[in-house]
Design goal:
It contains 24 helices and 24 strands. By secondary structure, the chain is α+β, with helices and mostly antiparallel strands. The chain folds into four domains: 114 residues, OB fold (Dihydrolipoamide Acetyltransferase, E2P) (Beta Barrel), CATH 2.40.50; 126 residues; 235 residues, Rossmann fold (3-Layer(aba) Sandwich); 121 residues, no CATH class.
């Protein structure tokens, strides 16, 4: 199985006598008459990286960095020219493991960048990757950053270093940029970390300590614009910094308690003019929950931790690999979010701009499960559909036969009913080209029912004895738990928006793509992907699922949802966070697989976006106070009741994704006068 390590590594041209090399030289001319070379890794790799002493690079990796190969020259001259060029340079790169046709493992570089060797370079140098945080990259000032470190909160993403559980950086750097230069501060010492949407969350070994990075030390570090958020520090300097840090006094954090002070001010009567516009019932509820938040420190809040499942982990790895091989550029967080939604939701809707591979993702998900034939049915929705008969068919009483719809849905459901041990996926492609409430009406009622009671009716029972093909198409079909429903949608002028009846039953995922520059780092697209050797049957998929019927949401999580519900009710009595949504959010959190990309606080944030904020729709007059006013000059939202609520519940989540959605909706209010 192919595998990609996305953290940056540093290397130099391998030594000729290196025992791991399969060839007599570290540079060779391959069968394509192209230069190929081997690089020795000199920086600390991820823990999962194998004990490989050299990785392979190609001439094409260096061409854009100024190296030119003259094919007319003799081979020894071409090789010597490359050797001289590499002699003064270090390479920064990522690594991909590929399995060749003869089952041989090869490790190739990609995303190659170049930086010069420093005067302090020594042959046996070992470099340690240290993440660099800054206001520019992580969106917070240094004092806020320090506070978040002490409070064990998420401090931002750094993609260039390993996020694996056992690769915790013991020290980190903060870059403070001024008009004249930039200064660095070292912070530590850390012994554990988590990594998710909010980036790194560090656990200190003792107290937080800081140390200014002296200029002479900085001169020994490898810093480059090609990998701006990581410093590669010689191990001798790294050990010196650790020792010096331990000698320092603990960092004094003046504003760690600022949030509690703010909450106390609000509860004791320091409410803003916006609060005064809110109904007394909401204000009372806010005060009660604010007090409960203050009285419970973050360290005392316990939440269920997802347990690992080896088969599920194997499936996720295969899904990651297949999406890479297919050239899709979705982040792993998106894939885990999709998988968790598929496990926990009656209906999953993939939203996003056209051309981002939503339908392809469903196909790859099915392929990674090993499903074949009718186990995946993709149904292209027609704009002309106006009733469920367009989808499921109808009883032709003139010819006395049942005529199923052309979509193939009924045949797939009949198969799923008979093959209850197999897993089936039904995908409605472009499902909002027609009004979902019209052609999908019967399904919306069925998805609300408990499993075992989900019965699709094709025609009345009294017609069964009169229809010629009633044995093939009985009047009812039982929709078992082995059937998963998913839809893809585009939101543009050619489509319909969803009603609350649909949104109450669906997890609506908005898929984001990675920056286009990362497309170059994807492996070469394959003509065909290797399917899993064994099919994931329903019993195996069921073992992935968490089906606890009792509610396990924390009191503060329930308190926030209740306050959001009251806010939405104050705008429109027909809209809110119903008990069904609360239960489904609870199921989603319980079904989160064991991994490092989405933690519980990120998952709760995603559920607020996917299950709650999708229902916040209306005019500027209705939603101005709830969403706030967008300030174009500052690119911020001002006076938002719901953002103020998030600020009080930072012990649950930082609500990064929710804040982004609210900002977008506030923009729509400003420019369009309404938001959908």
């Amino acid at each position: 199985m192919n595998k990609v390590w996305e953290n940056d590594l540093v290397g130099v041209l391998a030594d000729v006598d290196q025992s791991e090399l399969l060839y007599r030289d570290s540079i060779l001319i391959n069968k394509q008459d192209s230069l190929q070379f081997f690089v020795r890794i000199i920086s600390q790799p991820a823990e999962s990286f194998p004990n490989v002493k050299a990785v392979t690079g190609f001439y094409s990796d260096l061409e854009k960095w100024g190296f030119e190969d003259d094919y007319t020259q003799p081979e020894f001259i071409r090789k010597e020219k490359l050797r001289e060029w590499l002699d003064d340079r270090l390479l920064i790169f990522k690594v991909e493991k590929r399995i060749r046709y003869n089952h041989e493992e090869v490790y190739n570089m990609f995303g190659v960048r170049v930086m010069p060797k420093l005067p302090s370079y020594e042959k046996d140098i070992k470099l340690m990757p240290i993440p660099i945080f800054s206001q520019k990259v992580n969106g917070m000032e240094q004092n806020v950053f320090i506070s978040r470190l002490v409070e064990k909160k998420f401090v931002g993403r750094i993609t260039e270093v390993s996020h694996e559980a056992n690769d915790t950086p013991q020290i980190i750097l903060w870059r403070e940029e001024t008009e004249e230069d930039e200064q660095f501060t070292v912070y530590g010492v850390f012994e554990k970390h988590q990594y998710a949407h909010g980036g790194f969350n560090f656990e200190l070994r003792d107290e937080l300590k800081g140390l200014a990075l002296e200029e002479e030390w900085l001169d020994e570090c490898y810093l480059t614009d090609e990998s701006p958020n990581v410093a590669f520090v010689p191990i001798t300097l790294f050990q010196k910094l650790l020792h010096r840090l331990e000698e320092q006094e603990a960092v004094q954090v003046a504003d760690v308690s600022d949030r509690e002070k703010t909450l106390k001010d609000e509860v004791s009567g320091g409410a803003s003019s916006i609060d005064k516009q809110t109904s007394p019932e909401i204000q009372s509820s806010r005060q009660e929950v604010a007090v409960s938040v203050m009285e419970k420190p973050i360290s005392e809040i316990s939440v269920p931790v997802p347990k690992g499942n080896e088969k599920e982990q194997e499936f996720l790895e295969l899904l990651f690999s297949h999406t890479q091989d297919a050239g899709l550029i979705y982040r792993k967080e998106n894939l885990i979010n999709f998988h968790t939604s598929m496990k926990s939701s009656s209906l999953v809707i993939l939203s996003g701009m056209s051309g981002t591979g939503k339908t392809k993702l469903v196909e790859l998900y099915s392929h990674s499960l090993g499903l074949k034939g009718e186990q995946l049915t993709v149904i292209p929705v027609s704009p002309s559909w106006t009733s469920d008969s367009d989808l499921i068919g109808y009883a032709d009483t003139l010819n006395m036969v049942y005529r199923p719809g052309d979509s193939g849905l009924i045949n797939a459901l009949r198969k799923a009913e008979d093959d209850k041990d197999k897993l089936y996926i039904i995908c409605f492609d472009e499902m909002n080209l027609a009004r979902v409430e019209h052609y999908f009406s019967q399904f919306l009622s069925i998805l609300e029912m408990d499993h075992g009671k989900r019965v699709l009716r094709l025609y009345n029972d009294d017609l069964e004895s009169r229809l010629y093909n009633s044995a093939q198409y009985p009047p009812t079909i039982v929709i078992r738990e082995n059937v998963l429903f998913v839809g893809t949608v585009n939101m543009d002028e050619s489509t319909y928006h969803f009603s609350d009846k649909v949104l109450d039953r669906a997890n609506v995922l908005s898929l984001d793509v990675m920056p286009f520059t990362e497309m170059k780092q994807l492996p070469e697209k394959k003509k065909g992907m290797v399917a899993r050797a064994d099919e994931v049957d329903y019993d195996t998929f069921e073992s992935f699922q968490y089906k606890n019927r009792s509610l396990s949401l924390h009191d503060d999580e329930l308190g926030l949802l209740w306050e959001v519900h009251q806010m939405m009710q104050s705008v429109n009595k027909q809209v809110g966070v119903g008990p069904r949504i609360v239960k489904q959010i609870d199921q989603y959190l319980g079904n989160l697989p064991a991994q490092e990309y989405i933690l519980r606080e990120d998952a709760f944030d995603l559920q607020v976006v996917q299950r709650v904020l999708t229902k916040v729709r209306g005019s500027e007059d209705q939603l101005r106070d709830l969403l706030g006013r967008y300030n174009r000059e500052k690119d911020t939202v001002e006076g938002s009741l719901i953002i103020r609520l998030f600020d009080r519940y930072t012990n649950i989540s930082i609500f990064k994704e929710s804040r982004n959605v609210i900002k977008q909706k506030a923009k729509e209010l400003k420019y369009n006068g309404y938001t959908m």
